[in-house]
Write a structure and sequence with these properties.
By secondary structure, this protein is α+β, with helices and mostly antiparallel strands. The chain has nine helices and nine strands. The chain has two domains: 204 residues, no CATH class; 128 residues, no CATH class. The longest helix is centred in the C-terminal third of the chain and has 24 residues.
Length: 345
Protein backbone atom coordinates (compact mmCIF):
# COMPACT_ATOMS: atom_id res chain seq x y z
CA UNK A 1 0.00 0.00 0.00
CA UNK A 2 0.95 3.65 -0.24
CA UNK A 3 3.24 5.23 2.32
CA UNK A 4 0.53 7.54 3.65
CA UNK A 5 -1.71 4.50 4.15
CA UNK A 6 0.88 2.72 6.27
CA UNK A 7 1.59 5.92 8.22
CA UNK A 8 -2.05 6.60 9.13
CA UNK A 9 -2.52 2.92 10.02
CA UNK A 10 0.40 3.12 12.45
CA UNK A 11 -1.10 6.20 14.09
CA UNK A 12 -4.49 4.47 14.37
CA UNK A 13 -2.96 1.43 16.06
CA UNK A 14 -1.28 3.67 18.64
CA UNK A 15 -4.60 5.28 19.59
CA UNK A 16 -6.02 1.96 20.82
CA UNK A 17 -4.05 2.44 24.06
CA UNK A 18 -5.74 4.93 26.42
CA UNK A 19 -2.45 5.94 28.03
CA UNK A 20 -1.06 6.85 24.59
CA UNK A 21 -4.11 9.00 23.80
CA UNK A 22 -3.95 10.71 27.17
CA UNK A 23 -0.23 11.31 26.70
CA UNK A 24 -0.87 12.81 23.25
CA UNK A 25 -3.33 15.25 24.81
CA UNK A 26 -0.48 16.37 27.06
CA UNK A 27 1.94 16.77 24.15
CA UNK A 28 3.36 13.25 23.70
CA UNK A 29 4.41 12.25 20.17
CA UNK A 30 3.79 8.51 20.65
CA UNK A 31 1.01 8.32 18.02
CA UNK A 32 3.35 9.96 15.51
CA UNK A 33 5.99 7.38 16.44
CA UNK A 34 3.49 4.68 15.50
CA UNK A 35 3.10 6.29 12.09
CA UNK A 36 6.87 6.42 11.57
CA UNK A 37 7.12 2.75 12.49
CA UNK A 38 4.35 2.11 9.97
CA UNK A 39 6.41 3.40 7.04
CA UNK A 40 9.74 2.04 8.29
CA UNK A 41 9.75 -1.36 6.45
CA UNK A 42 9.68 0.19 2.96
CA UNK A 43 12.12 2.90 4.04
CA UNK A 44 14.58 0.21 5.13
CA UNK A 45 14.24 -1.53 1.77
CA UNK A 46 14.29 1.37 -0.69
CA UNK A 47 16.62 3.70 1.19
CA UNK A 48 19.01 1.14 2.66
CA UNK A 49 18.83 -2.58 1.77
CA UNK A 50 18.76 -2.14 -2.00
CA UNK A 51 22.16 -0.42 -1.97
CA UNK A 52 23.79 -3.42 -0.27
CA UNK A 53 22.44 -5.96 -2.75
CA UNK A 54 25.17 -7.77 -4.69
CA UNK A 55 24.66 -8.60 -8.35
CA UNK A 56 26.25 -11.34 -10.38
CA UNK A 57 25.59 -9.42 -13.58
CA UNK A 58 24.73 -5.78 -14.28
CA UNK A 59 23.43 -4.99 -17.73
CA UNK A 60 24.00 -1.40 -18.83
CA UNK A 61 22.45 -1.01 -22.30
CA UNK A 62 24.26 2.30 -22.98
CA UNK A 63 22.78 5.25 -24.82
CA UNK A 64 21.90 3.13 -27.87
CA UNK A 65 20.54 -0.13 -26.46
CA UNK A 66 20.54 -3.31 -28.53
CA UNK A 67 17.63 -5.64 -27.88
CA UNK A 68 19.52 -8.78 -28.92
CA UNK A 69 22.48 -8.00 -26.68
CA UNK A 70 20.20 -7.52 -23.67
CA UNK A 71 18.27 -10.71 -24.43
CA UNK A 72 21.45 -12.78 -24.89
CA UNK A 73 22.94 -11.62 -21.60
CA UNK A 74 19.74 -12.31 -19.66
CA UNK A 75 19.36 -15.77 -21.22
CA UNK A 76 23.02 -16.49 -20.44
CA UNK A 77 22.42 -15.71 -16.77
CA UNK A 78 19.30 -17.87 -16.71
CA UNK A 79 21.12 -20.84 -18.21
CA UNK A 80 24.05 -20.42 -15.84
CA UNK A 81 21.71 -20.40 -12.84
CA UNK A 82 20.10 -23.63 -14.03
CA UNK A 83 23.22 -25.49 -15.14
CA UNK A 84 25.39 -24.61 -12.14
CA UNK A 85 22.59 -24.55 -9.54
CA UNK A 86 24.04 -21.19 -8.48
CA UNK A 87 21.40 -18.42 -8.30
CA UNK A 88 22.13 -15.41 -10.50
CA UNK A 89 21.14 -11.93 -9.41
CA UNK A 90 20.86 -9.63 -12.44
CA UNK A 91 20.39 -5.85 -12.50
CA UNK A 92 18.97 -4.16 -15.60
CA UNK A 93 19.98 -0.51 -15.67
CA UNK A 94 17.91 2.25 -17.20
CA UNK A 95 18.88 4.33 -20.25
CA UNK A 96 19.07 7.99 -19.32
CA UNK A 97 19.33 10.43 -22.20
CA UNK A 98 19.04 13.73 -20.35
CA UNK A 99 17.74 15.47 -17.27
CA UNK A 100 14.15 14.46 -18.00
CA UNK A 101 14.59 11.98 -20.85
CA UNK A 102 14.85 8.20 -20.73
CA UNK A 103 14.89 5.49 -23.38
CA UNK A 104 12.36 2.82 -22.48
CA UNK A 105 12.95 -0.84 -23.16
CA UNK A 106 10.83 -3.86 -22.37
CA UNK A 107 11.66 -7.40 -21.29
CA UNK A 108 9.03 -10.11 -21.16
CA UNK A 109 9.30 -13.66 -19.84
CA UNK A 110 7.20 -16.14 -21.84
CA UNK A 111 7.26 -19.55 -20.11
CA UNK A 112 4.62 -20.96 -22.47
CA UNK A 113 7.04 -20.57 -25.40
CA UNK A 114 10.14 -20.97 -23.19
CA UNK A 115 11.38 -17.61 -24.45
CA UNK A 116 12.21 -14.11 -23.34
CA UNK A 117 11.38 -11.14 -25.52
CA UNK A 118 13.12 -7.76 -25.57
CA UNK A 119 12.26 -4.66 -27.54
CA UNK A 120 13.52 -1.09 -27.49
CA UNK A 121 10.76 1.43 -26.93
CA UNK A 122 10.20 5.18 -27.16
CA UNK A 123 11.82 8.07 -25.32
CA UNK A 124 9.82 8.99 -22.22
CA UNK A 125 9.97 11.74 -19.65
CA UNK A 126 10.16 11.22 -15.88
CA UNK A 127 6.37 11.03 -15.83
CA UNK A 128 6.70 7.99 -18.13
CA UNK A 129 4.90 9.80 -20.93
CA UNK A 130 6.26 8.60 -24.31
CA UNK A 131 7.20 11.00 -27.10
CA UNK A 132 5.36 10.03 -30.31
CA UNK A 133 7.60 8.75 -33.06
CA UNK A 134 10.64 8.39 -30.80
CA UNK A 135 10.99 4.62 -31.20
CA UNK A 136 14.26 3.58 -32.90
CA UNK A 137 13.87 3.18 -36.64
CA UNK A 138 13.31 -0.45 -37.59
CA UNK A 139 13.17 -1.59 -33.97
CA UNK A 140 11.70 -5.07 -33.61
CA UNK A 141 11.10 -7.42 -30.73
CA UNK A 142 13.89 -9.94 -30.26
CA UNK A 143 12.87 -13.35 -28.93
CA UNK A 144 15.33 -15.94 -27.66
CA UNK A 145 14.78 -19.48 -26.41
CA UNK A 146 15.81 -19.95 -22.79
CA UNK A 147 16.54 -23.64 -23.22
CA UNK A 148 15.65 -24.63 -19.64
CA UNK A 149 12.23 -25.29 -18.04
CA UNK A 150 10.98 -21.99 -16.68
CA UNK A 151 8.25 -21.55 -14.09
CA UNK A 152 5.27 -19.48 -15.20
CA UNK A 153 6.29 -16.15 -13.74
CA UNK A 154 6.03 -12.69 -15.28
CA UNK A 155 3.76 -12.83 -18.29
CA UNK A 156 3.26 -9.06 -18.11
CA UNK A 157 5.70 -6.68 -19.72
CA UNK A 158 8.48 -5.32 -17.57
CA UNK A 159 8.95 -1.74 -18.73
CA UNK A 160 12.34 -0.33 -17.79
CA UNK A 161 12.57 3.41 -18.15
CA UNK A 162 12.95 5.87 -15.25
CA UNK A 163 15.14 6.09 -12.14
CA UNK A 164 16.96 2.86 -11.30
CA UNK A 165 16.12 -0.35 -13.10
CA UNK A 166 14.69 -3.59 -11.73
CA UNK A 167 16.60 -6.68 -10.73
CA UNK A 168 15.77 -10.35 -11.28
CA UNK A 169 17.07 -13.34 -9.41
CA UNK A 170 17.16 -16.61 -11.35
CA UNK A 171 17.10 -19.65 -9.09
CA UNK A 172 16.85 -23.35 -9.83
CA UNK A 173 14.41 -25.33 -7.73
CA UNK A 174 14.28 -28.98 -8.65
CA UNK A 175 14.08 -29.17 -12.42
CA UNK A 176 12.59 -25.70 -12.90
CA UNK A 177 14.01 -22.20 -13.09
CA UNK A 178 12.24 -19.63 -10.94
CA UNK A 179 12.34 -15.90 -11.62
CA UNK A 180 12.16 -13.55 -8.62
CA UNK A 181 11.42 -9.88 -9.22
CA UNK A 182 13.26 -7.42 -6.92
CA UNK A 183 14.39 -10.26 -4.69
CA UNK A 184 15.79 -7.85 -2.09
CA UNK A 185 12.36 -6.37 -1.34
CA UNK A 186 10.20 -7.59 1.58
CA UNK A 187 12.76 -9.94 3.04
CA UNK A 188 14.23 -9.22 6.50
CA UNK A 189 12.69 -5.75 6.58
CA UNK A 190 9.15 -7.13 6.35
CA UNK A 191 9.18 -9.66 9.17
CA UNK A 192 7.14 -9.93 12.35
CA UNK A 193 10.29 -11.01 14.18
CA UNK A 194 11.91 -7.69 13.31
CA UNK A 195 8.74 -5.90 14.50
CA UNK A 196 9.06 -7.65 17.87
CA UNK A 197 12.78 -6.88 18.06
CA UNK A 198 12.25 -3.20 17.29
CA UNK A 199 9.47 -2.99 19.85
CA UNK A 200 11.70 -4.52 22.54
CA UNK A 201 14.57 -2.27 21.46
CA UNK A 202 12.42 0.87 21.68
CA UNK A 203 11.12 -0.13 25.10
CA UNK A 204 14.60 -0.97 26.38
CA UNK A 205 16.10 2.27 25.08
CA UNK A 206 13.32 4.36 26.62
CA UNK A 207 13.70 2.52 29.94
CA UNK A 208 17.46 3.11 29.98
CA UNK A 209 17.01 6.82 29.28
CA UNK A 210 14.46 7.11 32.08
CA UNK A 211 16.70 5.31 34.55
CA UNK A 212 19.65 7.53 33.74
CA UNK A 213 17.66 10.75 33.69
CA UNK A 214 15.14 10.18 36.50
CA UNK A 215 16.45 7.25 38.50
CA UNK A 216 13.20 5.35 38.08
CA UNK A 217 10.78 3.88 35.55
CA UNK A 218 7.33 4.87 34.36
CA UNK A 219 5.02 2.98 31.98
CA UNK A 220 6.19 5.10 29.03
CA UNK A 221 8.77 2.54 27.80
CA UNK A 222 6.04 -0.11 27.65
CA UNK A 223 3.77 2.05 25.49
CA UNK A 224 6.67 3.12 23.30
CA UNK A 225 7.63 -0.50 22.65
CA UNK A 226 4.05 -1.48 21.83
CA UNK A 227 3.50 1.49 19.52
CA UNK A 228 6.70 0.84 17.57
CA UNK A 229 6.32 -2.93 17.37
CA UNK A 230 2.64 -2.93 16.44
CA UNK A 231 2.99 -0.05 13.98
CA UNK A 232 5.76 -1.94 12.18
CA UNK A 233 3.80 -5.22 12.29
CA UNK A 234 0.74 -3.44 10.92
CA UNK A 235 2.66 -2.55 7.76
CA UNK A 236 3.80 -6.15 7.30
CA UNK A 237 0.28 -7.53 7.74
CA UNK A 238 -1.26 -4.93 5.41
CA UNK A 239 1.24 -5.92 2.72
CA UNK A 240 0.26 -9.54 3.25
CA UNK A 241 -3.22 -8.76 1.91
CA UNK A 242 -1.73 -8.28 -1.56
CA UNK A 243 0.02 -10.61 -3.97
CA UNK A 244 3.72 -10.41 -3.28
CA UNK A 245 3.77 -11.31 0.39
CA UNK A 246 6.62 -10.93 2.89
CA UNK A 247 9.22 -12.98 4.73
CA UNK A 248 7.14 -13.05 7.89
CA UNK A 249 9.49 -14.86 10.26
CA UNK A 250 13.00 -13.97 9.09
CA UNK A 251 15.58 -15.33 9.99
CA UNK A 252 13.62 -18.50 10.80
CA UNK A 253 12.10 -18.50 7.29
CA UNK A 254 14.15 -17.91 4.15
CA UNK A 255 11.52 -17.02 1.57
CA UNK A 256 8.59 -14.68 1.19
CA UNK A 257 5.24 -16.18 2.19
CA UNK A 258 2.69 -15.68 -0.58
CA UNK A 259 0.17 -12.91 0.07
CA UNK A 260 -3.55 -13.46 0.57
CA UNK A 261 -4.18 -11.98 -2.90
CA UNK A 262 -7.22 -9.99 -1.76
CA UNK A 263 -6.18 -6.67 -3.29
CA UNK A 264 -3.57 -4.85 -5.32
CA UNK A 265 -1.56 -2.60 -3.07
CA UNK A 266 -1.40 0.28 -5.55
CA UNK A 267 -5.13 0.43 -6.26
CA UNK A 268 -7.02 3.54 -5.21
CA UNK A 269 -10.01 2.01 -3.43
CA UNK A 270 -8.06 -0.24 -0.98
CA UNK A 271 -5.76 2.66 -0.09
CA UNK A 272 -8.61 5.14 0.34
CA UNK A 273 -10.65 2.66 2.36
CA UNK A 274 -7.73 1.88 4.65
CA UNK A 275 -6.98 5.56 5.24
CA UNK A 276 -10.69 6.28 5.85
CA UNK A 277 -10.99 3.40 8.31
CA UNK A 278 -7.81 4.42 10.14
CA UNK A 279 -8.97 8.04 10.49
CA UNK A 280 -12.41 6.89 11.64
CA UNK A 281 -10.82 4.68 14.30
CA UNK A 282 -8.53 7.50 15.42
CA UNK A 283 -11.57 9.75 15.96
CA UNK A 284 -13.38 6.91 17.73
CA UNK A 285 -10.47 6.22 20.08
CA UNK A 286 -9.89 9.90 20.84
CA UNK A 287 -13.55 10.22 21.79
CA UNK A 288 -13.89 7.07 23.91
CA UNK A 289 -10.74 7.82 25.90
CA UNK A 290 -11.75 11.43 26.53
CA UNK A 291 -13.25 12.69 29.79
CA UNK A 292 -16.71 13.04 28.22
CA UNK A 293 -17.29 10.67 25.23
CA UNK A 294 -19.96 11.88 22.82
CA UNK A 295 -20.17 9.20 20.15
CA UNK A 296 -22.51 6.24 20.27
CA UNK A 297 -20.01 3.38 19.70
CA UNK A 298 -22.31 0.99 17.82
CA UNK A 299 -23.91 3.62 15.59
CA UNK A 300 -20.58 5.30 14.85
CA UNK A 301 -18.77 2.07 13.95
CA UNK A 302 -21.66 0.98 11.75
CA UNK A 303 -21.82 4.26 9.83
CA UNK A 304 -18.15 5.29 9.77
CA UNK A 305 -16.46 1.90 9.46
CA UNK A 306 -18.78 -0.94 8.47
CA UNK A 307 -20.87 0.93 5.86
CA UNK A 308 -17.90 2.37 3.88
CA UNK A 309 -16.20 -1.03 4.06
CA UNK A 310 -19.24 -2.79 2.58
CA UNK A 311 -19.90 -0.14 -0.09
CA UNK A 312 -16.34 0.50 -1.24
CA UNK A 313 -15.27 -3.10 -0.72
CA UNK A 314 -18.18 -4.23 -2.86
CA UNK A 315 -17.35 -1.67 -5.54
CA UNK A 316 -13.75 -2.86 -5.60
CA UNK A 317 -14.85 -6.47 -5.89
CA UNK A 318 -17.11 -5.58 -8.82
CA UNK A 319 -14.27 -3.72 -10.54
CA UNK A 320 -11.97 -6.70 -10.26
CA UNK A 321 -14.60 -9.27 -11.14
CA UNK A 322 -13.92 -10.68 -14.55
CA UNK A 323 -10.42 -9.21 -14.76
CA UNK A 324 -8.21 -12.27 -14.92
CA UNK A 325 -4.58 -11.33 -14.52
CA UNK A 326 -1.65 -13.60 -13.77
CA UNK A 327 -0.77 -13.59 -10.07
CA UNK A 328 2.92 -12.98 -10.66
CA UNK A 329 2.13 -10.00 -12.86
CA UNK A 330 0.06 -8.57 -10.02
CA UNK A 331 2.91 -9.11 -7.55
CA UNK A 332 5.20 -7.30 -9.92
CA UNK A 333 2.77 -4.37 -10.22
CA UNK A 334 2.60 -4.12 -6.44
CA UNK A 335 6.31 -3.60 -5.97
CA UNK A 336 6.77 -1.47 -9.08
CA UNK A 337 4.15 0.88 -7.62
CA UNK A 338 5.97 0.91 -4.27
CA UNK A 339 9.42 1.47 -5.74
CA UNK A 340 8.32 4.33 -7.98
CA UNK A 341 6.48 6.02 -5.12
CA UNK A 342 9.49 5.83 -2.81
CA UNK A 343 11.93 7.00 -5.49
CA UNK A 344 9.76 9.96 -6.46
CA UNK A 345 9.40 10.84 -2.79
Amino acid sequence: MKGITHFISGVAIATFFPEVVQGAAAGSVLPMLGGIAGILPDTLDFKFARYFEKYDLEIDPGSEPEARDIAERVVGAMRKAYETDDPQNVMLHTVRLGGDLWRQYVIRFDPAENEIAVRIGPVVNTGQVPFPGSEPEGAEEVRLKVGVPMVHTYDAENKIDIFSGPSFKFERRGDQLHVHFLDWHRRWSHSLTLAAALGLGAAGTAALVELLAQGGLSRLPLWMGLVVGLGFAGHVLEDQLGFMGSNLFFPFSKRRAIGLQLLRSGDAIPNFLTVWTAVALIVFNLDRFSAAPRLDPILYLLLAVALPFVVLGGLYWLQRRGKKEAREALRQRDIVTESQEVQVG
